[in-house]
Amino acid sequence: MQSDLRALARRIEAGMRIALPVDYAGVSMAMTGPMIRHGAGDLHLVCVPTGGLQVDQLVGAGLVRRVETSAVSLGEAGGAPCFNRAVGEGAIEVRDATCPAIHAGLMAAQKGIPYMPMRGVLETDLLANRPDWRVADNPFAEGDDPIVLIPAIRPDIAIFHAPMADRAGNVWIGRRRELAAMAYASAATIVTVERIVDDNLLGNEMSAAGTLPALYVEQVALAPRGAWPYGLWGEYGTDIAELRRYAAAARTPEGFRDYMSAAAREAA
Q1: Around Cβ 26, how many Cβ atoms within 10 Å?
Q2: Is 219 in a helix, a strand, or coil?
């Protein structure tokens, strides 16, 4: 256990593939500033399965080379300005996906197999833009029966925020099974939490089923309100006004820099 988020950010190296969760599943916004100040760039972000504010800020800071996602937006606050600007300028590569395809790739990595078959993207434009997705014949069918093979997605590090962890490093994620999928597929997982509890979360029948074992967690750090301005289930709601304030500021590169500079001063 530790509380030095800067030390955790130093775990990230240039060129790594980083898995980040959807906005309602526990985004570790507490790690965003330390990641930006650490400055490891050329990152490949894997959104599980969509991205939002954290992705936008990392892109705006110039740390991202590629985003693999089924969507990036700020939800009710509108589009993701830095992401949209970077795409328009050709500054980043976008690997379009679908939500099921992202989860299929993570599942393949979790199972230690090279790919996972799925049908939902057959006869779509996605196949023309994803040469790493292959169409093959179903070996168990008689006649023509194509199927798409989604390669395993193996992130170097998964990063998310959760309500609590115990002193052994077990993390309670409740029903947010996408967080478990990220951790199972990744080489390492970093988690920030609202609080550390003394009870063994795996030893309690009421919490065990929703607990990610410490086996899959490399580091846990205490970061109260670490998802803000996003909300965290059972803890606090999303600050829509702050998301809108960011969206308005980040419409220009200068506005983005001013917003992030002010945020860094407040965090210091």
Answers
A1: 30
A2: strand
